Amino acid sequence: MKKLILFMVTVTLVIGACITTVQADEVLVRVDNLNIRSGPGTEYPTVGQANAEEVYPFLQQEEDWVEIELDSGTGWVTAEFVTINGTEAKIGKEKKGKKLSIQQDQTQLRNGPSTDYEIVYFANANEEFTILSEMDDWYEVKNDKITGYLYKGLLDDTPDTDAKNNSFQDKTIIIDAGHGGHDVGAIGATGTYEKDFAYFTATELEKELSALGANVMLTRPEDEFVSLAARVSFSNISNADAFISIHYNSFTEQPQVTGIETFYYHNQDKALAEHIQREVIKATDGKDRGVGSGDLYVIRQNFIPSVLVELGFISNTETEAKLLTKAYQNKLVSGIVNGLGRYFSE
């Protein structure tokens, strides 16, 4: 009897030891601002973002996408920028090793997949690189001189590119940050000002468009009051190709209201409004309040293609919180850039 008990105790300890040494597969993120999507592909909406050194439980891999477990539900990340149990995830051969050729002199390479990262190299026309990996709108590339990240929009012949290089070359774009100075605009749920959101979005948009080769001008380059007439006069003498007025909504009586909308006044500007609205909704997965004709001074009196975008209701606490993050602002900017790119490509 004692031998039987001793045997059972021994077996239990062995089984227990085996159980405690079993570890679930883990996914380690290697870069910041990695989009988490609802399905295995860029056509699926973004449900969040992961940053470098974050770890998630691994569920499965489908081609070049890895499904991870989230606090609520699951999501998918591209396999190029994660490791599984310390080993690089396997990705399709069609992406790694492909060659590309630079189309324009002074094409910028950065040290990370975002315009937030520093420029580390200016490539020349016809300079060749090998693709190491791909992350949404960016390629990681390498040649015998440098390894860096290249924005797809700087390539003429990239099939997955939303905004092509020649769309922005030699284009002049005016960005109008609404309100300013003593004119604070709408007031957010926690006392934030529309003027500050508009200015931040405008300056981020300026950086992105400049990186793509556009000539960008701001109607107010700092926090100052500029009259509507002065904004329009500045635009009309500029001979610019597009005028984008950045605004945010507020409806304090119904703080649950959300959504994004774009206005035009002249019928010929409807296409520009539609492209921008479509791409911003695609980038943010926000509520689509549509495109409409608006009798608004800065677009009514403008001689160049002009739209006014209302990028969200700051009276909604959830929207206001998202707008305070750089990650969500980047989505808004990306949508506007892609919309402009499609408009200029027509």
From TrEMBL:
Instruction: Quote the SUPFAM superfamilies the UniProt record gives.
Output: Zn-dependent exopeptidases
What does UniProt give as the signal peptide span? 1-24
- The reply on keyword Signal is yes
GO cellular component assignments:
outer membrane-bounded periplasmic space
Q: Which UniProt keywords apply?
A: Cell wall biogenesis/degradation, Hydrolase, Signal
Q: Which domain of life is it from?
A: Bacteria
Listed Pfam families: Amidase_3, SH3_3
> What does the entry give for GO biological process?
cell wall organization; peptidoglycan catabolic process
All copies of the SH3b domain together span: 24-86, 95-159
The record's GO molecular-function terms, alphabetically, read: N-acetylmuramoyl-L-alanine amidase activity
Q: Which PROSITE patterns match?
A: PROKAR_LIPOPROTEIN, SH3B
Q: Which residues cross the membrane?
A: none
Residue runs in coiled coils: none
Q: What is this protein called?
A: N-acetylmuramoyl-L-alanine amidase
Source organism: Oceanobacillus piezotolerans
